[in-house]
Amino acid sequence: MKKKLNSIFIDAYGLQGEVEENVEERDVTVRKADLQRDIKSLLSYAVGCMFGRYSTYKDGLLFAGEPYSLQTFVDKMNDRPGTISAEELQCAYRNEGVVVDEMFFPDEDNVIPITDEEYLDDDIVSRLCAWLKAVYGADTLEANLDYIAKALGNKGSTSREIIRNYFLNDFFKDHCQTYSVTGSGKRPIYWLFDSGKQNGFKALVYLHRYTPDTIGNLRIDYLHKMQRVYESEINRMQDMMDHSENAREVAAAGKRKDKLAKQLKECREYDEKISHLALSRIELDLDDGVKVNYRKLQTAQDGKFYEVLADSKNIMVKEKEIRKNDRREWENAKSLDKGMMMSRRHGSVLNVHMPMIRWHTASSAVIVFKMKPMKMRWITISLVSGLSVIENIVTGQPRNPMIWHGYWNLCRRIT
User: Fold this and answer.
1) Which three-class secondary structure state does DSSP give residue 240?
2) Phi, psi of 131 (to 5 degrees)
3) Considering only CA atoms, which of 271, 227, 192, 258 is closest in space to residue 120?
4) How far apart are CA 241 and CA 256, in angstroms?
5) CA distance 316 to 200
6) HSE of 31, CA atoms in CB hemisphere, 13 A
7) Cα–Cα distance for residue pair 130/90, rounded to 1 Å
C-alpha cells in the first residue's frame, strides 16, 4: 500500500528519478494488520469507555480531568444539555441502528476490580461483557468473547477465563508500553492498585477521574469486600474437606484453601498500608504529571511511603531526582537572595528574610517581591508537596518611603 501511495504521488508531482517508490520495512508508517495487537487495542479502548475517557456514542475524549457525574455524561451525549435525564436516555438510545438492552455508562466510582476468579458482578470481565453487548448486541456476545480469547492466546479453559488472565497479568504491562515516552519512561493513565504476587487484590483507577475519596472508596467497597469473599470461600473449602468422601475433591479443596489463605493474608497486609493513604485523602494535580503524582499518591500525610501501585519503581519519580531538584532550586534561591538582601535604592537597605521551609518532595514556588520604583525580582524555591507549611515570613521595613509588596505565586510542580 505504501509503495502504491508513493507511486501515485511520484506520478502526480513528476518526481520520477528523484524519489524511489520502494519502501523499507522499518519505514512503513501504515501499520500491518496484527490480530492480537488490534484486539489488545480494542480492549484498551473498552477500558477507556468503562472509565468515561471514551464513548462509542461520541468521538474524542469525554472525561479527562473534569468531575464526573452521570448527568454530566448524559449532557455530553445530548446536544441540548439538561433536557434529557440519564434514565430517559438509557431507555431511548439506539446505537447505530442496533437495539440494545441498555446504554453503556462509565463506571460510577472510578474503581474496576480485577479478580482471578468470578467473585464480583462488576469486575472488569463483567464490565467488558456489558460493553460488548451494548456495542455489538447481546446475541453476539459469546462469539465475540471466543474471538477475543483466541486472539489473546492466554491460558484458560474458557473464553472468559482467558480474558480474565490477560487483564490479571498482561493488560497493565501493555498499557504502560502504549503510554510511554521515549527516554523518559512510562506514563500510564489507568493505575493498577496491586496487593502483590498472590493476586489477592487488583483494581484499576483512572487518573483523570481520581478524587481524594477514591482510595477510601476502593478500600471499603472493594478491598474489604474481597477479604470477606476469601473468608467465605475458605470456610466453604473447609466444609468440603470435612464432609466430602471423594479424595480428589478433598485434595482440590485443600489446595484451593491454601491459595485463598495466602490471598487473604496478602489483602490484610495491603489493607494496613492503604489505610494510611485513605485517611490522608491525598489530592493530585494533573499538571504535575504521572511520575510525580505516582509517588505523591503513595505518600501518606505522615510523610511515609506506602507502595500500593504496580511497578512503582519504574514509573514514579525517583527520590534522588527530588533531592537533586530541591537542592538545585535552593542554591538558586540563595544566590538570588544575596542580591535581594542588600538592594540599595536612595541610600537605603531593604531587608528580606527568607521563609523557613520544611522539605519533603519536589514542587516549586516563586516569591515575587515587587518594589517601586525597583524592577520585579523572582526567587524560586522548593516547597513540600501538599504537606508543606510556610513557617515564617519576615519582611523588614525600609527606612525610605519605597512602596513594595510581597506575595506567593505557586507554580506547577516539576515532573
Assistant:
1) helix
2) -65, -45
3) 227
4) 11
5) 23
6) 5
7) 14
DSSP states of 18-57 = TS-----GGG--SPPP-HHHHHHHHHHHHHHHHHTS-BTT
Cell numbers for 17, please give them. Answer: 528519478
Please report the beta strands in 136-243, taking only residues with DSSP state E, as ranges in sequence order. 180-181, 185-186, 190-194, 202-206
Task: Tell me the C-alpha distance between 87 and 105, whole Å.
Answer: 11
pLDDT given at position 136? 92
Collect all residues with Cβ–Cβ distance below 8 Å to 146 and sequence separation of at least 6: 159
Helix axes of 171-178 and 159-169: crossing angle, nearest 10 degrees: 50
pLDDT at residue number 5: 77
pLDDT average, residue stretch 235-257: 95
According to DSSP, the residues that pair with 404 across neighbouring strands are 371
> In this structure, are residues 21 and 8 in contact, taking their beta carbons and an 8 Å threshold?
no
47 burial via Cβ count (<10 Å: 0-12, 13-18, 19+):
buried
Q: In 3-state terms, what secondary structure has residue 83?
A: coil
- What pLDDT is stored for residue 327 in this prediction? 54
Whether the pLDDT of residue 339 is over 60: the answer is: no
Kindly report the average pLDDT of the chain as a whole number: 77
Residue type at 375 in one-letter notation: K
Cell of 84: 434529557
Question: CA-to-CA distance for 157 and 154, rounded, in angstroms?
Answer: 10
- Encode burial over 182-206: b for 16+ CB neighbours within 10 A, e otherwise: eeeebbbbbbbbbbbebbbbbbbbb
User: Where is 353: in which H helix or E strand?
Assistant: strand 352-357
